[in-house]
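Continuing from the previous page of notes. For each protein in this section, the sequence appears first, followed by its structure tokens. Read the first protein now.
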Amino acid sequence: MLYKKHLTHQAIFFHRQTWVFFVIYVLARLLSFTTFTSTFAQGTIVFCTVMALGILFFKKPQWALSLILIELFLGGSGHLFELGGLAIRSVFLLVFSLLYAIYTLTKKNKWQNFSIPHILFYTIIGMCCYVVLTTTNGVLQGNTLEAALQDLVPFLFFALLPPIFHLMQDKKGQEFFLRLCVVSVFCTALFSLYNEILFSSGATIIHDHYYSWFRDVLMGKVTNMYTGFFRIVLPEHMFAIVALIISTSLVMKKEKHHALWYGIILASSIILVLNLSRAYILGALIGLLPLYYRRDLLRYVGIVFAVTITMGLSFFVTHFIASGGTSFGQTLFFHRATSILHPETEQSTYTRTTLLDPIQRKISQAPFFGSGLGSTIRFQPPNSSKIVTTRQFDWGYLEIIAELGFVGLGIFVFFLSSLLCTLVTHIKKTKEFHGLYVGILGVLVSLLFIEIFTPIFTHVLGIFFLTLCCVLVTQKHTPLDIIVNYFYRLFRRIT
């Protein structure tokens, strides 16, 4: 009876933190939209929140770290607010890292708070040192310092590894993190649907004031597919892959599940079909393959089939509504699918293929150590007479080779191999199979595939996910048992 009472009161949507996160998500975007043209207002907001970060840190370092996590999950691109051209996310990271360094130096066991006793930690240090060296060389060879620093910022988020490892081991911190993840998925789905409605209904149009904010601040993209449907692309859509695969893995456990699990899968599916990235969708499906581990074949096939159908229905229904009931989007679906084999039939795919030759030339200039972060390539887009210079290579592994060389790719592969091996070891050693472990494995497999076509592991959110994975697999006394049990406490149906 006490157990049931606890379950009832600990349901995730009956906790005040959940509603606080939702309010923060909405208010942050409203405030960003109303102030993004005012440098003074933006600077004031960043200054005040940074002061709040400092106060929270001196009260309790875990609270300041929580603010960092809220911004990462609810802040989208990290550019909702800026101070002197610096994104609030970057300012948060710099201030928090400085405060954590000072805090750690006051402790007796200083090095223990700066480090993690695992090969992954030292591999990350080596990789980051190599990135800095090659980037410095690239600047000396002609890359602009501004571009190099912008490309370097994502790697700095590896600095969150020791703080998260040492500060987020208590139960309340883990519960906080789980609620934040769930709210982020649902809010992202609702916001993506909101933008689909805005553009498909004509309430706002491309190149207007709202679109400028969406493109320049949120770093999003809106593409008219000329069927009434608009592609809505946001950086945080990557988390939909994580949520979909992990939720599917946990649902495979033979028990009656709370409807919220299926709600997370539905929300993730909606995000992916509105994004309409072929790499994301194929990557998500490929990420479902490792979930077969220790599962009944029929149950595995049934659940994967149900998830696939959910994604398909999400696309057809959203397209039907967006088109005003004139089409289910089957023409668009087949066009996107067949353009993989015939890139000349679609502008974006054709443009991506034209990047291959200049990328190869860039690689040939410095094949071993790369040209450094901030490197650019020049190419001529299809159906255009202009020569375009860009830092967006659009091919993940090729971008790593071009900027960091084959040596850098080797270091990166060694790091990912170590992470995968450590994760597999955890899976094998657990007395009871944990869907969360295998779900994370599925996500990593998915992202490894997506990296072929889209730079994931050099993006802030991709590096942050790798950081979280390292935290989970390097714990001596793994908190995953607690986390998984809490997951099931939250979402299991009370019978």
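Done with the first. The second protein uses the same format. Note its length before scrolling.
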Amino acid sequence: MREMKKISVFYRKLTSAVLVLLLSSGVKAQQTTLFNTYSYDLMQLNVAAIGRTCFEANLNYRAQWLGISESPRLYQLNAGMALGSNNGVGMRIFQQSQGLLKITNVTGGYAYRLKLSETSKLHMGVGVSWSQNNFDGTKTNVIDKTDVTLNTNQSNLRSNNFDCEAGALYLGDKLTAGISALHLYNTNSKLELVTYNIKPQLNVMVAYKFNKGGPIEVEPWLVNRLTVGGANQPEALVNVKFMQMVTVGAGYRVNYGILALAGVEVGKLRVAYSFDYGTGKSSTGLGTSHQILLGLDLCRKKNTKSPDTTLVQETPPPPPVAPTPTTEPEPVVKEEPKPAEEPAAPVVKEEPKVETPIPVAETKPAEVPVVKEPIDEPVKPAEKPVIVPEEINPIATTIYFDKNSSLISTENANKIKKVAKIINDRRGNVVVVGYASPEGEQTHNNDLAAKRAQVVRQALIKYGVKANRLSIKSGGATSSLDNVVEHNRTVRFE
């Protein structure tokens, strides 16, 4: 009897591992692992998020249910990149280890991006995955090693499965919404005596940014994971972002417990930490779960200041000074050769005096004093550059942006505040014109230029300018504004 109990250890461990496999993703037989940092990494929820930037990669680590012995450890790498203006490709690599059981999953995805407006796009994506469940039976204890049956059961048990998923994602200026379907290729996964069925799952999410681009940005999230014929797992999360860098958040997952999040973004890098704690009846005693995210976004704006060149039109003063010396000295140069041709009588100096007064010799030198008047005039035009630009364009301020960015730095925010005061002090309407440098794809640059103009317009409205006085225009990609390439990534005012 004692021997039979030890013989069954293998099957008990195998069954336990499979049960943990079903539960490790959440409560009530949730099949997909619940990562909490989806506000940084949308690929955790929807395959359609692939290629939303030029290149993005996020590495996730989750230590789940620390109150349970040999609880799951999960690793997931999500990476995607844009191809042109309409396509995106990416992949997801996932691994979960729990005791003797290890799960490996590799997913390849594609997304098509459809432009709906200057500030909104619709992404549609599909993904195909391969997964392997591996149970290491070599680590089980068997009393009778000569028993062929028991030794066979001590081998590594594997099952390979294929799956697919699809999703749609709306990315607006403030609104983000999406729906995705997972496990569309429904198969039974089997490990020796234990077989479990993977059912289709639907993920629905929506988020909205309040005070976008401001010093304090609030973004609530609503997410629901529905398993066909199984669990319904809704949750709510509210993130508060300070100065577009530091984020803190808190939320609640129905029938499970509380969530918390903290993260920071510096330049192109991001780091985030989250934890969840079960407070429901079915989750009590599971302990806390911790997650860490390390991310890279090559298209995110660096936290650096743009060059301060507020008055671009201060350069016109040299042209009015240049023409004055060039027009009148010319007659003086032309008249000097004439006396140089008549040095035939070097001693007799009175003869040129008799000849020159008869024609115009004395009248033309009389014009020479006129040259003295323009010599004093350069002082007067020096005062005009301050007045003339204001009459032509009182808003001679240029807002500079980083490459592939439409985010407003603190320095540019101060510039925009000054522009708002100038507009409010004067009458008339203003056109906000956005530009982009010529590098990269033309359509993307045109969109980026329009987005920059839209962002600046919203900032002006925030600082008190009436919306009906402002309109936007895309200047597109150009190199004619400045010889320095990066100085063409601007917004200007007309």
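What the second structure shows: Residues 147 and 153 are 10 Å apart (CA to CA). The domain at 2-297 is CATH 2.40.160.40 (Porin). We return to this in next week's lecture.
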